[in-house]
Amino acid sequence: MNNHANSPQLPSEPRQLGFYVDGQVRDRGEREVLTRLSPAHDVAVSETVLCTKTDVDEAVAAARKSFESGAWSRWSGAERAAVLLKAAAGIRENLDELAYWETLETGKPISQSRGEIEGAAGHYDYAAGVARSLHGDSFNNLGDDMFGVVTRQPIGVIGLIIPWNFPFIILAERIPYMLAAGCVIVCKPSELTSTTTLRMAEILTAAGMPAGVFNVVTGMGPEVGQAITEHDDIDMLSFTGSVDVGRRALMASAGNFKKLGLELGGKNPQVVFADADLADAADGVVFGLCFNAGQCCVSGSRLVVEKSVAKEFAALVADKLKRVRMGDVFDPETQLGAIVSPQHFEKILGYIESGKQDGANVVCGGCAVETERGHFVLPTLLTDVERSMAVARDEIFGPVLAMQTFETFEEAIEIANDSIFGLAASIWTKDLDKAIHAMRRVEAGRTWVNTTIAGGPELPIGGFKQSGNGRETGVYGVEEYTEVKSVHIALGKRDHWVK
Ligand code: NAD
Is residue 51 among the annotated active site residues? Predict the structure, then answer.
């Protein structure tokens, strides 16, 4: 680990955050706050307001008023696109500041925060195009006296609940698509990472978004999140987070049968066939594990490798894992950052212990990094893993790779699909037929061939099985936030029913 010699200055006092309702920052007032420590430095960097149920009610009322007013919801696609494009420019203008805060609150390396902010701007650009091209359908084949139209209209008020691992890009994979559809939003960021969401509200307002369209209530899940999921005047809930909380959100949202979008966890297989370019595959596997310190819903945390090359491949992966650069999260060369919280750090170490007790072999890593500040885990490769072990089944959400082997194509697919999750999978082979057959058979919303964690606004994302419902991004991502209405238009004089 290198030291913190290159770090920009840390805040001398924690940043006092407000919350954002009806186009304005609201002060903390008498409310409690949560102090956020930077996971890489253990220094207090921000104070997040713990909003109340009443604050949620006010935010929903502001959103509803805005939606009904038609300012935004009935604007043309071109008008909405103009705001989204300005918001993209606003993100780029504030890149340094946004990336700094993303790293402070999440503990990720600054290069990954910068990539996240740049990628986010691209989503606003892309959604602006969809705002202008969104359209319905027409039926000119219903006979001489009938014409049919299928039209899309915005769903209405959306409750948006966001996790801590990619606070800014997860917002960007949702907000511009909701806005492109004409919806309005009440958003709750993670209590650990609220700063950049609040900055996004200001950027949108500066870009010309009317008051009440994007509201942010900060605070704890069981209070603020629960109030959003239960709220009867919210038309749709978009929840991204863990399976357990997702299940709770599903139950809580039943009161008014709001539409539900769920983006949940993963235990994503990296399937490596013997004929793969093993050096490339090892590099991809290491990236897929270490990016964001393994705290990605799409982290490739299960290595499923053909037995004939397993030993050689494990050695290639271990060699690379040992060379991943860890250290000062503000050093542009750092590749692996801190773990988000002391509790999560302990959970990851607990999983490594459970793997050892169950009989897995630690090839490299397997422990915490000794540092004066922050919480870091060495990237870890476990071999001799059995399907029944917790390290093979649970989402650890840390840099811990559990390796299993297979002998036949069928066995590879069976192991890959042996999970409650179905979020992502990677397939490594030079055999085109095998790649396409495996891609078809694997149960995952996102499947990569000879790469991993590739993405962008054009292709949709989402999960199979307990990884969730619905899709974000792409044209599908805007359509998710629309209601489909079918219209029959009668032509000419009516043939009377009562003569
Ligand atoms: P989490 O489920 O603990 O929290 C997610 C959000 O829900 C937070 O804002 C939290 O405050 C809120 N929340 C907590 N209790 C709530 C309740 N009772 N009602 C409503 N909201 C509540 O998840 P996390 O630890 O923040 O994030 C990690 C998880 O998110 C992992 O499981 C990861 O796989 C998943 N994730 C999924 C995707 C995806 O696109 N599929 C993306 C990123 C993260």
Answer: no
Which residue is associated with the tokens 């690379």?
320
pLDDT for position 2: 52
Between CA 270 and CA 273 the distance in angstroms is: 10
Q: Residue 320 half-sphere exposure, CB side, CA atoms within 13 Å? A: 20
Give burial (CB, 10 Å; 0-12/13-18/19+) of 364. Answer: middle
Active site residue 297: yes
Radius of gyration of the chain (CA): 24
Q: What's the DSSP call for residue 257? A: T
Of 333, 303, 324, 315, the C-alpha closest to 279 is 315
- pLDDT in the model for residue 5: 55
Compute how many other C-beta atoms are within 10 angstroms of the C-beta atom of residue 426.
Answer: 30
Structure tokens at 191: 């209590």
Tokens read off for 350: 């607990």
Return the HEC string of 169-231.
HHHHCCHHHHHHHCCEEEEECCCCCCHHHHHHHHHHHHCCCCCCCEEECCCCHHHHHHHHHHC
How many A from CA of 162 to the centre of ligand 1?
6
189 alpha carbon – ligand 1 mean position (Å): 9
Dihedral sign computed on CA atoms, order 413, 416, 420, 426: negative
Structure tokens at 426: 């990677």
Across-strand partners of 24? Answer: 21
Atom of ligand 1 nearest to the CA of 226: 19
Ligand 1: residues with CB < 6 A are 161-165, 170, 188, 190-191, 221-222, 225-226, 229, 240-242, 245, 248-249, 263-266, 297, 395, 397, 423, 463, 468
Instruction: Specify whether domain 269-449 bears CATH 3.40.309.10.
Output: yes
Ranges in the chain annotated CATH 3.40.605.10 = 15-264+467-485
Please report the pLDDT score of residue 4 as a whole number.
54
Considering the candidates 263, 395, 443, 480, report the single residue annotated as catalytic: 263
Element (H, E) at 426: strand 424-428
Q: Domain 15-264+467-485 classified CATH 3.40.1280.10?
A: no
- Which pLDDT tens digit goes with each residue over 115-136? 999 999 999 999 999 999 999 9
- Across the chain, which distance is largest between two alpha carbons, in Å? 91
Regions of the chain with pLDDT less than 70: 1-7
